[in-house]
Amino acid sequence: MGVFSQSVALALGIALPHWVVTSDARRLSPMQRSRGWNVASHWSAVVAFSWICVPVHFAETRRSLGGLALGVLVSALGICVEAALLWGLSTLGA
User: Fold this and answer.
1) Are 71 and 54 in contact (CB under 8 A)?
2) Of 71, 54, 63, 55, nearest in space to 35 by CA
3) Which three-class secondary structure string do you get for 14-26?
């Protein structure tokens, strides 16, 4: 894997979880949103932990095992999407 592919993988590993957590936070009730992370914590979690922060966000805002399960499912789907994008990139020879 070259420098370009590694850079794309790093960017996707930050951008996709950020998009998932941000778009989910917009749909939450005010009470659930108050349980979420502030901006600094959000970026720290997304950059440091990538997809691992998604189940934590879902569990933290929903405070249930169902929220955790939903977060694990969304995270697994996101990892599959990221892997498919990187596979497509590698088949192009990048």
Assistant:
1) yes
2) 63
3) HHHHHHHHHHHHH
Cα 8 to chain centroid, rounded? 15
3-state secondary structure of 29: coil
pLDDT in tens, 67-91: 999 999 999 999 999 999 999 988 8
**pTM greater than 0.90 (yes/no):** no
Structure tokens at 17: 């979880």
Inter-axis angle of helices 65-91 and 3-27, nearest 10:
150
